[in-house]
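Q: Joint fold for the lines below.
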Amino acid sequence: MRLTNKLLVFFIPILFITIAGLSSFSYYMSQQNLLRQEVRLLNIVNNQISKSKIKAKVNLLSRSGLKGVDSFESVYQQEVFVEFNTLKSNTNKSFHIIDKNTQTLIYSTNKDMNYQAFNQIDWQDLQEVSGTITLNNESFVYSGFHFVYWDWQVYVTESLTVISQPIETLRNISIIATICATVIGSILIWLVTKRIIINRVTLLKDATQQFSKTKKHISNPLSGRDELNDLAEAMRSMSIEIEDSIDKIEAANQAKTEFLATISHEIRTPLNGLIGSAKLLNNTNLDDTQDTYVQALIKSSQTLSAVINDVLDLSKIESGKLTLERTLIHPAELINSIEVVFLKSALDNNSQLTCESNIDNQLYLYSDVVRLRQILFNLVGNAIKFTSNGQINVHFSLTPRAVDTDLATHEFVASISDTGVGIEENRMDAVFESFTQSDNSTTRKYGGTGLGLTIVSKLVELLQGVIKVTSQINVGSTFVISIPITIEYGEDPYTEKQAESNLQYKENLLILLVEDNEINAMVAKDMLENYGHTIILANNGSEALTAINAQHFDVVLMDIHMPVMDGIEATKQIRAMSDPNISSIPIIGLTAEAFEARHQLFMAVGMQSIITKPIDEAAMLATIHQVVNKYA
Amino acid sequence: MLQPLAQASYLEEEQYTMLPTKFPTMQTTMPDNKQFTIYVLETMEVALIQQSNISYQTKLRELMPNTEFTFITDNAQGSSELASELLTQRMASNLHTDLYVGIATVATKALLNSSLQNADNKSNQAMPMQFMVVSDPVSVGLVSAIGHMSHINMTGITHVVAAKTKLQLLDQIIKTPLRIGLVYSDYPSELTASASILAEADVYPKLTFIPIVYEFASGDNALAINRQRIIDKLAAMAPQIDAYWLPPGPAAHDLVLYDTIQDAVAIPQIFSEDANVVKQGALFGVMCDENIIGQSAALVAKKILQGTPAQSIPITESDTFIVAININTALAMNIVFPSTVLSLADKHIYR
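A: Joint structure:
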């Protein structure tokens, strides 16, 4: 509820209760006052007017010497009654006379009066009485006096209903006035509050929103000297500090990004050379000892590469620089990729890896395949790592979603279960924390940085899914991920794959390798020449342009960071060449940079694909053939 | 020093202090130590006439304390001829007279006739005249209407209460139908007043007036003759009436008449013009008593003596009356005076 409405909701009842309370009190006091005044008036009427009329008659009889003359006294009593009738007409009050001796009513202006109630009045030897009385079930105010000579108790009464009539009108007016005052008061308070509080709060809100949008400090939108202005000043100061902090954070973030980019490039570049050289060495004739050393070298460099990739991935995720790219993939492809990568690893641990899917063969999944694969590879890799002489099962399924949101119609559920060492119950949540494994002995026994599950959980979260784990020590663990996904129907991919596989990888490609690092150049050249391709080397972008102008190449592998002319500039110039045979040449970027934004930049200047270092031989071959087939 | 009247009315104290302020005194304009001679012609020997004369003289002396007054009083014994003769003698005597006063109708008429007869004689015509105790100045010929000035150099205040007032009061007092014998003669004031009463009586269904007319006797022994005539008439009409009424006139002020009637026929007198008669036994009366008559006439006389022509003073009705009631008569007649009437009567409640 808006503050304006809240104010009204609170003000109206408060005002109403206050004004109604005051009105009720006033009404009550008015009523009491009126009653007192009426009693006073009745006393005057009775004691001065009624009594004087009766006394005048008796005095006249007395002066005339007729006191005691029954005929005259009787007639003059009747005259009193007649005068009381006139008095009733003039004053609208009722008069009653009771014979005190016989306690009978001898006169009343109200013939139907049940006078018995008068006999209940306790005079207590007083000559005058007053108060309230109930006659014929109606309340009256009365005044009475005792006229001794005729032994009359003379009363004058007035109905409380009649007395209350003017204040009943007043009450009704008060009710209307209360309602009007409440409405008007509420409106006025609302208007005033709106002007001095709400409008100014709105200004503060607008300023805050502007700050939120622009991240630039705000000026004080208010004037005056009050608490809101103090708040505005505090907000202004805070916005200045926040702006400074944001600038510093952004600078730090930028520095971190540049650092990571630099580190990524500076580490991965020599690492590419290391891994590539180790693999090339592995393909030579080695004795057992050399082979052992080379295997160790390969494994260590792969481990280092994995660690660096994990750190960079986590950094990208936490800095929000990881963008999702959704494409179609068949569940069978995922299973296939898992089997290809991990079957041997499982066997090496004397474990059995089984993968299955009950998803319709004609369904394709639309998701970020790279991240999905990363998630599954991490989980399967972990399962294999922590399971010896056991069983690792991977199961895919698809369930319709209860609520269609963001066009995600189904939930892709992947279950990875193992019969490994398990996770202690009190460490269940901690395994998803960075650099945390089940316990410290795990790190010593099994190695790893403890980032894998952290990356998995963040990737699942990025894909708007959930991950759950159940585990029991020495029994095993089961990781289940559930990711919202859309599906499409298509042909069985294996038939397509087979068709694809019928596409022969081209041989004898003339490839221009633009690389300033001698080791990386050597590794890549040897890899590609093993597959029958011809490699021409260029040390920088300038030499690349010269080479391209000299002869036609099937594809160009372009490193990014090079002296004289880097890969970006070289690509731009190639694409700007007038000869379409040259300007349309396929160019694949070679980079150790891990950030997607940079890859987007490379693509934007004209590269058709990117191969990240350290170079995976199969990935490089697949990328080359894919690009040549598509763009040559 | 002013002597209080023997029969004081409720006006005595108030009026003695009130009256001097009612009329502007001309003493400041007139020098003191004046002498005035006033000739007073009384119609007959009736207490009201004589007492009014006394009251008049007393009040005049009081109003003009530094003036020497000589009052010459004659009585016409109820005779118009005697009244004229006495007046002529006075006028012919060449004795200086500052003011002629007629009390009651006969005397006043003689003054009127004298004035008319001497229309050519400017000195006599100019002689200021005043009347008292005249019930109907209009029928006497003094003025065309009450409140107007006379065509002759005469003025005065009539003492008679309007018939309407009397009948209204009676109607309040009487609760049951009453047959009233209205006893009157051809005496002018009686005739005029009776006519007024009979004319008004139709409005009061409870009151039935039965005229009882007798012939007015004047001259010697007129009172006794008139009394007997009245008694005879009442005796004859006794079975047809419940009470009798005497209109203003000589009979109304005859104090002996009431007792005589009661002894003879024992019929209650319902109304009297004379408080003394009420005191004797008439049920009630509304009148100007001798004090009111004398005092109001004295005020007029003062004006005339101070130089205001009598002709310029309008002839008016008295605005002051008394109500007199008799309790014994009321009780005997089983009548209760309403308190309004009782309070009006005030000090004139007799029993």
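Q: Anything notable?
A: The first helix of chain A runs from residue 3 to 63. The mean pLDDT of chain A is 85.
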